[in-house]
Amino acid sequence: MNKQEEIISATCLLFSVANADEILEDKEVESIKEIIIDFFQLEDYNDIKKTLDAAKEKFDNSIDIFEFSRVLNDQWDYQDKIDFICCTFEVAYSDGELHYIEENIIKKIATILNVNFQDLIKAKMEIKKYLK
Fold this sequence. Notes:
Elements: H1 3-18, H2 26-40, H3 45-60, H4 66-75, H5 78-93, H6 100-112, H7 117-131
Helix pairs in contact: 1-2, 1-3, 1-4, 1-5, 1-6, 2-5, 5-6, 5-7
């Protein structure tokens, strides 16, 4: 398993949140870019652009989100998963509001990553407070 596969899988899950309402807004894509730079401590702009493009293509050709979460379950500890759930809420709120379809996708991601419901709610509240 390489780091690039991990980053692309995480980015695909973020795209699944952003695209939940079937409208991928520039604000959401920018939010995803900032998150992956911060979460994975990326520095090379060309790599970031390539990663976003590769993830978008992989997401567009995917059938479901399970394939992406399997990679992350193998690589991440529980705290990484909670931190990532916070990131999913950040993407969802990037357009100013949390759409119920986005929230359903985040719940599905949390379930697949084995994040318990209490931690999901804490993550949501933390991001809501952080963004105000």
